[in-house]
Amino acid sequence: MKNKLGITFDEANTNKNSGFIPVQRPLTPFEHAVIQKEIEDFYDTFITKVAEGRKLTKAQVDSIGQGRVWSGVDAKKIGLIDDFGGLNKAIELAAELAKLKTYKLWALPEQKEPIQQIIDEIFGNSPESRIQSVMGEDYKYYKTIKEIRSMKGIQARMLISLDIF
Fold this sequence. Notes:
This protein is mainly alpha-helical. The chain has 8 helices and no strands. Helix 2 crosses helix 3 (58-64). It is flat. The two termini are 38 Å apart. The mean pLDDT is 86.
């Protein structure tokens, strides 16, 4: 990193494991063991739940799994899924199992009709407009923080803010 990118690392640690999972050096045997144990615990929990849900033994599920990814067709052949379908199909099947004749679904947060959203924005009734009106001149800081939170990937930040008018 230093030779190719000019990036160096400094660190201050409070104990021998406070720099856990470093980016600038290989894992220690202890760090490697901790991560491996977490992976194995997660996998064991996963195959236990699959075994219970599919009425199989953990050994059967483990022999099927082993970190592989199955297509839907193959998953159905080997008993990992019952049927094909998305969320709506799953809800229908759950309602059948619960012996529900009628049920209601609603999505949260509730969405306004597009025309209502446009009208609200024109007349300053949008949540963003209300925030701007409450925050006044400080709204620009809120907007900057909001933009930073939506950015993806590696970023470098300067400790200054420059507004050009």
